[in-house]
Each structure stands twice: as structure tokens, then as C-alpha cells.
Write a structure and sequence with these properties.
This protein has 199 residues and is mainly beta. It has a four-stranded antiparallel β-sheet, with no helix packed on it. The chain has a four-stranded antiparallel β-sheet with strand order 10-11-17-15, with no helix packed on it.
Length: 199
């Protein structure tokens, strides 16, 4: 599993079982063979110094990669292969990290603007074209008319939008329209700014 931030790091979880003899982990040689022809050794691991006999444990090996990979071969040997010690290889298919999506990845469209009495009602269609959900928690929505910010009196903004989902967002703002000489306003929504032409 490659981590998505910082250096490209591949984490490989391995399960090791011993039989009648313990294993000194200093005798285990781990090599990751990648497409560039390089053989990489783990930067860190969680193995103990010795694995007792009749024991099964899981350890994580971490390799620093020069580039993103989709496959590799992990080889482990116990001692020196040339002296007759054993070597085992595993073909790895590397699972890529899920992308971290933000509100910038959503498709947003203003659908309708209606003035009812002293209320301005705005309907917005949200669409998440990706397979992963997008968090909407903590998003601030405001309407500005002649520089005066107003928060919505009602909003059905969900905490997140599932992958592939379409959602109709309904916003209601106080709007003393008869006191306003201008018919335009600015809507700040999901890190975007829209100019609304109020009917």
C-alpha cells in the first residue's frame, strides 16, 4: 500500500511462521525488485530480533520508492543463497491509495433563484462524478448584498456527498428586497463565488 503524502513509501505486511527452530531476523534478507532493475531494502520494519519456534507473527516492511509502481517482486532469503540457504519470492500487485477529494472536485450548478416575500431561495445542484465520497463538513455558505454578508436561515447541506451522487441543495436567505436598489448578489458556496442575478 503506497502512502499518498511525503516520500513515496510502500508498506508490505508479511506473515512469518516458524517451525521447530527460532529465526534470528538479522539473518533474513529482504529485497524488493522493481521495474527499474533496482533492488531495494526495507528502510524500517517491525520485526523482533528473534522469532521463537512455533510462532506466527505479522510484520510491516517499509520501502522508499523512486516512483509509483503497480507491481514488484519481494524476495526473502535466510542466510546466503549461494551456500544453500532458502530463498522465496512473492509477486506483488500494489494497491494504489484512494485519492483525497475536496469540494473542488464537485460539479456545482445554480438551478433556480426565487424571491418569496422577504426571502431569497436558491436551489443548487451538486454532483460528485468520482467513486469516493467528498466531505462537506465545515463548509461556510454566505450571501453578500451591497457588501453585507448573510448566512442562510435554512440549508440542507449534507455532511458528505457519496460517489456518483446528485444532490439538490436548497438555501434560504433573508432578503428585504424592497429596500435593495441593486438586483445582483454574490453567493459564496463550496469555496466558489457566484454572481446571482436576482429577479
Amino acid at each position: 500500500q503506497p502512502f499518498s503524502t511525503g516520500p513515496i513509501v510502500l508498506a508490505v505486511d508479511v506473515e512469518i511462521s516458524t517451525q521447530t527452530e527460532p529465526i534470528l531476523t538479522s539473518n533474513l534478507n529482504w529485497l524488493l525488485q522493481i521495474a527499474t532493475g533496482d533492488d531495494l531494502r526495507p528502510e524500517t520494519h517491525t520485526l523482533p530480533d528473534e522469532i521463537p519456534a512455533h510462532t506466527t507473527l505479522t510484520s510491516r516492511l517499509r520501502f522508499e520508492l523512486p516512483e509509483r509502481l503497480v507491481s514488484a517482486v519481494l524476495t526473502v532469503s535466510n542466510g546466503t543463497v549461494s551456500s544453500g540457504e532458502s530463498e522465496t519470492s512473492f509477486a506483488l500487485t500494489i494497491r494504489q491509495p484512494d485519492p483525497v477529494l475536496t469540494v473542488a472536485d464537485l460539479l456545482v450548478q445554480i438551478e433556480n433563484i426565487v424571491v418569496t416575500g422577504e426571502q431569497l431561495e436558491v436551489t443548487v445542484q451538486l454532483f460528485n462524478p468520482h467513486s469516493n465520497p467528498v466531505s462537506l463538513t465545515g463548509q461556510t455558505i454566505r450571501l453578500e448584498i451591497v457588501g453585507i454578508p448573510t448566512s442562510p436561515s435554512t440549508s440542507n447541506l449534507p455532511p458528505e456527498l457519496a460517489g456518483g451522487a446528485v444532490f439538490s441543495l436548497n438555501l434560504t436567505f433573508s432578503y428585504p428586497g424592497q429596500l435593495m436598489s441593486q438586483s445582483d448578489a454574490r453567493l459564496f458556496l463550496l469555496e466558489r463565488e457566484y454572481v446571482l442575478h436576482i429577479p
